[in-house]
Amino acid sequence: ExxxxxxxxxxxxxxxxxxxxxxxxxxxxxEQRRTRRHYEPVALTLEQLAYxxxxxxxxxxxxxxxxxxxxxxxxxARHAFETVLLINxxxxxxxxxxxxxxxxxxxxRLEAPEDIRERMTIACWNQExxxxxxxxxxxxxxxxxxxWRYVERSMRYLHLDAGHVCQNLYLAxxxxxxxxxxxxxxxxQKVNDLLHLDGVDQFxxxxxxxxxxAINR
Length: 217
Fold this sequence. Notes:
Blueprint: E1 11-12, H1 26-32, E2 39-40, H2 46-57, E3 59-62, E4 68-70, E5 81-87, E6 96-101, E7 106-110, H3 116-123, H4 128-132, E8 135-142, H5 143-150, H6 154-175, E9 179-183, H7 188-194, E10 202-213
Antiparallel strand pairs: 1-7, 2-10, 3-4, 5-6, 5-8, 6-7, 8-10, 9-10
């Protein structure tokens, strides 16, 4: 996990054992899953956001070697992603950029311009689902974590892992009545610049918008 500044205010998220989210039938969820690009202006609750984060990067156990075992598969348990959120409509949170601190199951607020929502939409080639979303997930690849073990095969594994994470998000969101649109069409440099990433050692590998599906769209 990337470090965060001493004294950074962690925003705790509701723990899994406190959730009041009904179980969902796995087969039904898979069969009804669709890519949802059009959203109603409906906010996620903080509990629902915690649910989505836990099911995509939640740390279930830490080994004696410091390896994290999570709710999603990863080559060699490297878990080379940081989850950054563009939050537009989440109850109890101001709009802006946040990072999920998986080991603490908490958020930290990141510095961002007031018009970050508009800038990120433009960087994603003006795809309206980013602007309309309750939250957009941006997965940042930290290449050293994977390259340390897998060297020349690490880029392949990073992209495979990104698919695992995004599919978990699709199913988790569908199970609570929200929808996802996975986005690979974005301007790499513009998105990386907005997150202050160098585009080599750290870069955005995948993006996914989340929102309440619009009726009849």
